[in-house]
Request: fold
Amino acid sequence: MRWLDKRYHSLNYELRKLFGKKVIKLSLNGGFTCPNRDGTIGTKGCLFCSDYGSGEFAGNKKLSIKEQIFQQIDLLSDKWRTGKYIAYFQSFTNTYGTIEDLRDKYEQALSVEGVVGLAIATRPDCLSEDILDLLEEFSNKCYLWVELGLQTIHDDTARLIRRGYPLMTFDDALKRLRSRGINVVVHLILGLPKEDYKDMIESVKYVSEEDIQGVKFHLMHILKGTDLYEYYKEHPFSLLSKNEYISIVSDAIEILDPNIVIHRLTGDGAKDMLIAPRWSLNKLGVLSGIDMELKRRNSYQGIKSE
Ligand code: SF4
Reply:
């Protein structure tokens, strides 16, 4: 198979190709906030966002970046302590700070032996020219990608989930990042309220035709303590079943450009916070279901992308 044991271009495959061995991502909390929460754009955040700012599994912000990295490496079993790591700035908006603070935190991460790259999750409206200069500088000295939480290309849905920016802001940020050679990974959520199959596939097609280097597919899941949970109680909408999700993700893989690396294929809700769908807790079951579906179809990433 073209991508080792998978029928899609996995991140594991890509990192092994680049670094010669398995590379582990360490999820960090840089202690940032988000303009969609601090009142700059909004105060309530995206509808689905928890108090952890989409970083339920990230480190403890009371620790320095270096301490978080050491702690996370310590927690790894011997099998996963491969000696090569990507520092993943996951919680909240990781370009929302002063240049000095950002530089210090990114540098701290890279100063730890074995950290070969940075993954920086942010919003497309938090990329000023100064920030882009900084990201370009770091992308010239390490492997780096920037993650943008687009979730959907449909502005009606974006308003419903209080994303806080229109599609054109994403388009503009993507152009500016790519003009500096910075790798971009885009997040999409499948199963958003009021979206049907056609809407989801349109989002996948759209990003597949853009100059992006990676994608993360998330399953719409509902966490305790989020406004989405309140919305769900007031306006129950149907959540995808496991079989529906596997089928839609397989369709998405088939239309996705084979050069785009798939960083994630399902959601990752913390067990004690997840309201629904509970089947998503069996992540391995979902992943193997996708493998089996692609095998059943004798299909692979990009088979329908031309
Ligand atoms: S942009 Fe990210 S951190 Fe900010 S409110 Fe939305 S999901 Fe939460």
